[in-house]
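Limitations

Structures in this collection are predictions, not experimental determinations, and the ligand pose is part of the prediction. Treat each record accordingly. The example that follows, with 3-methyl-2-oxobutanoic acid as the small molecule, is included so readers can see exactly what is and is not provided: the inputs are given verbatim, and the output is the predicted complex.
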Amino acid sequence: MRGLRQLTRRLLSNVPENTVYGGPKTQTPSQRVTLANLRQKYARGEPITMVTAYDYPSAVHVDQAGIDICLVGDSAAMVVHGHDTTLPVTLELMLAHCQAVARGATRPLLVGDLPFGSYESSSNQAVDSAVRVLKEGGMDAIKLEGGAPSRISAAGAIVEAGIAVMGHVGLTPQAISVLGGFRPQGKSVSSAVKVVETALALQEAGCFSVVLECVPAPVAAAVTSALQIPTIGIGGGPFCSGQVLVYHDLLGMLQHPHHAKVTPKFCKQYARVGDVINKALSEYKQEVESKTFPGPSHTPYKINAKDVDGFLKELQRLGLSDAATAAAAAAENIEIAGKQSTKSS
Ligand code: KIV
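Predicted complex:
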């Protein structure tokens, strides 16, 4: 029943503001960000914020920060699953990530990445995958990487099917095989023109926005000026309509050695969460090993003195005299430690 209610709530988030039956509704800060909200922000020249999330807790954090768009990126392959590239992640795995994020983020527009191999073969395959991301994953829109004509047609077919599509140009990590590595794009005249042309083609196909990854600032500025839809930059400098960063990168959680090595130069680390986690885990280990955890304040469950006596007698009766001795010592110990900690606090 609860599952059904949650599913209904998620599906309802796709209802646009101008519903036939309800008429236009005013937006309150807690309502889902819609494409119309993004268009208004874009028209006002206000930067759009986007961050990735992969699970329930990261989605809750992104939601609470008031971020406009939450992307369930195929970067999950690297930052969550420890792969060296984004290629291995499957549609099934992405759907599981999308579902967890949809349970945690109730306000941002939810965009799910179509993973490598889920949309390149045919328009039918692309539409089928995109439909699953909305129906099963609970997303509001999908993102796909542009470039080859088949990917532009895929974007067009998905839009035709009634699904909002975000494009992605510049460094498209799913094309690592042909790009020959995680390399910035648009650094030569022909490459820069290709970035602009691909972005225009994605707009023509009906995309509502385009991610611009790892391109020089003048190229990003040219794309932003040429398009009538928002550009979301990542390593594209300040002249974009908005910015996106990967959750783990911006929080400084770079445990995978390969990830740490390729963590882009453009990424500002707003915290060193990885260091905080390491410190907490080491302290926990040290306190368990030195028997200082759990102390009296983390030993909350009490049994009164009368019941301890009864318990000890029962243990003796059952022939468990060692257990009775251990229980008696523990009761005495806990009482002394409790008194000491009350005195010192
Ligand atoms: O998968 C991802 O996280 C992305 C962002 C880098 C935009 O595509």
